[in-house]
Amino acid sequence: MTTTQQSLVVLAQHGDEEAFYQLIEQEQHKLYRMAYVYVQNENDAIEVFQQTIIRAYEGLPQLKEPRYFATWLTRIMINCCKTYMAKKNTIQLVEPQSLADLNSTSPTYIEEELDLWQALCQLEDKYKTVLLLRFYQDYSVKDIAVILQCPEGTVKTHIRRGLQALRQQLKGAYLDEWVQSAERSH
């Protein structure tokens, strides 16, 4: 987090609503995408996103380290998603966010992406969460450990087991290539 962002956090903690809105604007796309994967429809994702913003605004004065604002906000969003899903108690499949951009992409690639996302959505939450944070949000293992408030070793184990579960579900060459590249990157 840059010094400017940390300054915005401090200002927001002291009641500067404009600073808070600027901070949220920087994180909104990342948070919305993750909420969408959890709740699997646009209206629910917007509702979870709004709940996240309200909780963040209310809890901001208690944030001890301004530099961890993004990880703190992501943790709030994950908790809001889990609470929302527990209340709603529904499971649906979700298409990859990038599907709208695949008009000129081969049908085989689209099928592979859908298969991967469907398999990812069927994973246990602990595996789905770490894989989303690591490979779709580009958080480091250390950052994921901070977000989830667990040891780095646990994060690594969940990543490895999540990738193994994906491999078992999909057993295809394209998945093996993706898993191998994912395993090399962490």
From TrEMBL:
GO MF assignments: DNA binding; sigma factor activity
Entries under Gene3D superfamilies matching the protein: 1.10.1740.10, Winged helix-like DNA-binding domain superfamily/Winged helix DNA-binding domain (1.10.10.10)
Record domain RNA polymerase sigma factor 70 region 4 type: where: 115-166
InterPro entries recorded: RNA_pol_sigma-70-like, RNA_pol_sigma-70_dom, RNA_pol_sigma70_r2, RNA_pol_sigma70_r4_t2, RNA_pol_sigma_r2, RNA_pol_sigma_r3/r4-like, WH-like_DNA-bd_sf
Keyword ATP-binding applies: no
Keyword Phosphoprotein part of the UniProt annotation: no
Domain RNA polymerase sigma-70 region: 23-89
Gene Ontology biological process: DNA-templated transcription initiation
Keywords: Sigma factor, Transcription, Transcription regulation
Domain of life, source organism: Bacteria
UniProt similarity note: Belongs to the sigma-70 factor family. ECF subfamily.
Protein name: RNA polymerase sigma70 factor
Organism this protein belongs to: Lysinibacillus macroides
